[in-house]
Design goal:
By secondary structure, the chain is an all-alpha fold. The chain has helices spanning about 1-15, 20-40, 50-65, 70-75, 80-90, 100-120, 120-130, 135-140, 140-160, 165-175, 185-195, 200-215, 220-230, 250-270, 275, 280-300, 305-325, 335-355.
Length: about 375
């Protein structure tokens, strides 16, 4: 656990300088992302449940195939995209750590661009990103986290009205990890909502909770449709999973989502807050995605596949909490709200680390 405490201290230390000036704030954010990249990229193969498998497949495929065409012929379809990317990385740098470094770079760049685009409280949002365990999940579900990071880049392109790069990035994300299909209907909804100012934040939030509840109720038929399209995911049984609803870690996460959901709902009931949040198109983007994250966190953590999908939406929730605390800027209450949220997430993060969730403890660097 000691390396993680050092990580937290480095992040907080860099964050303390962010209030000096805009230039220093930018430097602090870059410094924090560099620290996060370093810990993720240069971890040992034992850190993360699937890290060793990623490295083994990277090396074996890099040595087995002689060309990209051969990789494509062996894998077939858009799902071959990640294997082609990994093969190309191996040809350029045939070392075990190379795939972890490249994947970590993509993940951290995507998160950095997303938070920089959508959050006005960047340091706070990054802290929540780390403490929500989204960062540590990438040590295990690295391929999905790469896809999620590319989806975040697509949302940045959408906000900048760069639609062709957005479409291309979504296609790439689908080729990296097929769970990115989950974000396709959400992205379509975002396009419909982005220029519509009719609905306030409360309405969007309640609708997202209802949508998450519907997904939970209809999970089994939806699961069989999805696993029929992508046979690989049939291993996630529709009726049972390692993330059972009785699991203490998942239960504690659901409780925190309930607390965050109540905070978001009652905050938007304050006169003027709901409309002001959704006045800006970028705010509506993160509010919808973040609200869906809360809904899934409350209703959908009982199934492994749905629990994994939450990590696509968590960065938006990190921006949401910063946005809300900024809108509630009344004296010292903003500081108290942010400190309260950070403490809640810190307690849960330490509990998950001590429980060795995703097998990220003990931490060691690749040269140790």
């Amino acid at each position: 656990m000691t390396p993680y405490y050092v990580l937290f201290l480095l992040i907080v230390g860099l964050g303390l300088f962010s209030g000096v000036s805009k230039a220093v704030k930018e430097f602090s954010l870059l410094g924090i992302m560099a620290v996060l990249f370093f810990f993720m990229a240069f971890r040992a193969r034992s850190v993360g449940a699937d890290t060793n498998n990623y490295v083994w497949l990277f090396v074996s495929q890099g040595m087995s195939y002689s060309s990209l065409a051969e990789v494509w012929a062996s894998k077939g379809g858009i799902s071959a995209l990640y294997d082609m990317y990994a093969w190309a990385v191996y040809q350029l740098c045939p070392y075990e750590q190379a795939i972890l470094v490249c994947n970590s770079l993509i993940i951290c760049v995507g998160v950095f661009l997303f938070i920089r685009e959508f959050s006005k409280t960047e340091i706070f949002s990054v802290l929540i990103y780390v403490l929500s365990f989204c960062y540590f999940f990438a040590f295990n579900g690295m391929r999905q986290s790469v896809a999620a990071s590319i989806v975040l880049m697509a949302l940045v392109c959408m906000n900048r009205k760069q639609y062709l790069p957005e479409i291309l990035l979504l296609i790439v994300a689908l080729g990296i990890h097929q769970t990115a299909f989950f974000m396709v209907p959400i992205t379509i909804s975002l396009h419909l909502l982005r220029n519509c100012k009719r609905y306030g934040a409360t309405c969007i939030f309640v609708t997202c909770l209802a949508a998450a509840l519907v997904v939970r109720v209809l999970y089994e038929p939806l699961f069989y449709v999805f696993s029929g399209m992508f046979e690989h995911y049939s291993m996630y049984s529709a009726g049972s999973s390692p993330y059972a609803t009785s699991d203490l870690t998942q239960g504690r996460q659901a409780i925190l989502y309930v607390v965050v959901g109540l905070f978001m709902f009652f905050a938007t009931r304050i006169p003027g807050i709901s409309r002001s949040i959704c006045f800006d198109g970028g705010n509506r983007v993160i509010w919808l995605v973040g609200s869906l994250c809360v809904g899934m966190g409350i209703f959908c953590t009982g199934y492994e596949l749905l629990a994994r999908l939450i990590y696509y939406t968590l960065p938006a929730l990190c921006c949401n909490l910063g946005l809300l605390s900024e809108k509630l800027d009344v004296g010292n209450k903003t500081v108290l709200i942010r400190m309260g949220l950070l403490v809640c997430y810190f307690v849960l993060c330490i509990y998950m680390l001590k429980s060795n969730y995703s097998i990220v403890v003990p931490y060691s660097f690749c040269w140790m």
